[in-house]
Automatic annotation (TrEMBL):
Region (Disordered) residue spans: 231-261
Protein's recorded name: Uncharacterized protein
Biased composition (Acidic residues): 231-247
Domain of life: Eukaryota
Annotated source species: Mycena albidolilacea
Amino acid sequence: MTVKPGAIIACSLDYPLEDPVEIAVLPNENSAFIYNWESSEEAVGVVMEDGWTRFNSDDVLNNSIWLPIDTLYYEPWLSQANHIFRHLRITSSFGDYVFVTAAHFELNILASTEKPPTGFLFLCPPEDFETGSSSFRWPVCAAYWSLDPSGAGRLTLEEATRLGFPALDCTTEIYGYYWDTNVYEGLRKFHRAKGFDPDTQDVARHLRHPLYQLSSESTSQFAHVNEGDLEAAEEGYWDTENEDESDDLKTETWAGEHVSE
């Protein structure tokens, strides 16, 4: 899947990556920070002239290397969340709407059953993960083994395996914040007390924040929504009688942080 730090996704906190739906995004807004490859065992990589990073094979065997991408710029979302919720007629289960803060693209270099020759692991430039503004996913070729320190002569998977180099296991960890009903209700009251209509993006404009737009995925997911329905739903907007508040969730592929203010 493509990861967009700063996007808002709808997902069940019990099964966060089973069927996530992006509901809102900051168009053409690059608010993500992409870093260099990091190693859990402090192996030091050398950045080559072509942007690829080289690690000595002896330093990375039975090790993990990851590429972190993150954003902590969640204020724009909180300034206009009620506007997006209103337009999608979302009135409950607010903890299921997650602000994506970060992604770690990780390579796990598994233990080898035999001693491979001295070689090198080459990892692609971080920008190869970019598919658009604040949009990232695994590239076609993220890494390869080579016997040549220049990176020439890439070993195919079959060649690397025959020589004893271990397999590379790719995983992705996604991190996010979510807030419960009390926070969004408090923001709604606070914005109104300051003279703003919480169902608009006036607060975001006043603070000069970038404006969220509904995602194409949310357009189809909430296709039943229209302005007449929105007006009819307003009176019971904050019906929390059946609100389901979930605990913090941390799994191998997801870390959600419940933020209360």
